[in-house]
Here is the input.
Amino acid sequence: MTGFPWLSIGYSQLKGPLSGWIPIIGEIGVSAVLILITVNLGLTLRLIQAHTSWRIKGLQTIIVGVIFCVSGLVLNSINWTQPSGEIKRVSMVQGNIEQTIRWVPEQDDPTMGKYWDLSSEHWNSDLIIWPEAAIPKLEIAATDFLELIDKKATETNTALITGIVDVNYSTEKIYNNLISLGNDKLSQNTIPYAYGHKNRFAKHHLLPIGEFVPFESILRTLAPIFDLPMSSFTRGSYVQANLLANGMKLTPAICFEIAFPNQVRANLNDDTDAIITVSNDAWFGNSHGPHQHLEIAQMRAKEFGLPVLRSTNTGVTAFVDHKGAISAIAPQFEDIVLTQDVLLVTGKTPYRELGNFPAYLFFLLLFIIGIFFQRKIKIS
Here is the structure.
């Protein structure tokens, strides 16, 4: 079913005492550390309830918790990546298009006009970003508009990245895409837009039920919820080329793909400048969802030591720096353009280099040690 790792417990430590471990073992490793600490605590409480000798176990629990928390605070002072001195001015357009009208054909032109008008004063930025499916027309039907954007971005010496859905009629495949228009190289457009051009990213990790239906032939006949419109997308490749935008190389993640660190890491190259994530969180409404989504993006920034550019339709649009801190944020449910100077960085975090391997190895060793002592106790 592909999983839905939304509220994994490691996210609770984004600003907690274990946050220093995030660039080393990632959110998954921090979740495992929390489980280690709480299991120790749980065993101690069981011994207390059983009126058994618990002091040694209690002392062990305290020592384990203190070691990880204190070391986490110390590790938080290490700068795994450092500013390179290169700064890019980025504008993110939050169109605030209501979910109820997003796919109404009569609203296509007004929506595209709104994004164009909101961007009109920001063509002097190095990069302009529109959110997921900002252009409501299928790409094959919006080529004239895309060519216009490509021409304008090239003339103003910038780049524009937008989300758009495309249907390939020859293969009957539907893709949720991000495409980059205008300059791909610094002050140069070497990949002018044409339908199907290579400077694009197709969403790989599709949303269960919303974008694809597991066991489709069976479930679609059971209930209306399994037969939603736009729920038969095709996966893009797991690893794809970075988007090229005015000299920048960006690793994309569309919507909840940002919740999968392994996928993001697989798409990072040695020369990747930042992570770009776009979303339409309008369907969340005024709930905790968009804010949780932003925290997930912050976690990826801290894990990989890279800035994250998060552009959304209704919020929360935000710039996240390489330490996982929010440097600029737009108010929700307002049509607004958020502009910020983004500081690029050099260097890599241990987690970017090694992924989950250190965490898996550490807990495998603990498992082996546990089995050894368990057998030793039984023998004695």
Notes: The chain is about 35% helix and 20% strand. Residues 204 and 238 are 6 Å apart (CA to CA). The mean pLDDT is 90. The longest helix spans residues 22-49.
